[in-house]
């Protein structure tokens, strides 16, 4: 099966991204292994791939698509979700932001990278665990 997947990758000009928590057998066919943001950046830098296969969850594939708008991004398991990303919707954020802007006109919304593209779009900045303090201080 590994040989077949590698052949399909060549034939379809695909790159496979595998999040750190994937099963070891997925790592055998992955071109890159890492955290979600690192993987999206890796895909952006690959020049000979038309298709990105993201072995992760929805928000990760969305981030890869934002970084690679002209490429097809596939998520092998459409049920793969993240409870953190699911904890806020863009609609709820928009409502809360509107409410708080009345009280705090200089409000800035910083979202964690583990959120959907819709939530990121409503945010003023996006952070990771390693740069959260630096982003908020700015």
Number of domains: 2
| CATH homolog superfamily of the largest domain | NadA-like
> Which CATH first-tier class of the largest domain would you pick?
Alpha Beta
Mean pLDDT: 92
- CATH architectural group of the largest domain: 3-Layer(aba) Sandwich
Termini Cα gap? 49 Å
**If you compute it from the alpha carbons, what radius of gyration comes out, rounded to the nearest whole angstrom?**
17 Å
Encode the helix/strand succession as letters: HEHEHEHEHEHEH
How would you write the strand order of the largest sheet?
2-1-3-4
Helix content: 40-55%
* CA-based shape: elongated
Low-pLDDT stretches are none
| Structural class assignment | alpha/beta
Q: Enter the CATH topology name of the largest domain.
A: Rossmann fold
Count the strands? Answer: 6
| Main beta-sheet strand count, sense and barrel state | 4 strands, parallel
Q: Would you mind describing this structure in some detail?
A:
This protein has 138 residues and is α/β, with parallel strands linked by helices. It folds into two domains: 2-74, NadA-like (Rossmann fold), CATH 3.40.50; 85-137, NadA-like (Rossmann fold). Helices cover 43% and strands 17% of the residues. It contains seven helices and six strands; from the N terminus they run αβαβαβαβαβαβα. The strands form two sheets. The protein has a four-stranded parallel beta sheet. Strands 5-6 form a two-stranded parallel ribbon. The model has no long low-confidence stretch (mean pLDDT 92).
């Amino acid at each position: 099966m590994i040989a077949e997947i590698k052949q399909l990758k060549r034939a379809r000009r695909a790159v496979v991204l595998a999040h750190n928590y994937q099963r070891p057998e997925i790592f055998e066919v992955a071109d890159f292994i890492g955290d979600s943001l690192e993987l999206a950046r890796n895909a952006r830098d690959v020049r000979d791939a038309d298709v990105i296969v993201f072995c992760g969850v929805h928000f990760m594939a969305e981030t890869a698509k934002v970084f690679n708008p002209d490429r097809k991004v596939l998520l092998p398991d459409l049920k793969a979700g993240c409870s953190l990303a699911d904890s806020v919707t863009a609609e709820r954020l928009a409502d809360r932001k509107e409410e708080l802007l009345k009280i705090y006109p200089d409000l800035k919304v910083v979202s964690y990278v583990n959120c959907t593209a819709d939530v990121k779009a409503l945010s003023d900045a996006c952070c990771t665990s390693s740069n959260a303090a630096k982003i908020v201080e700015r």
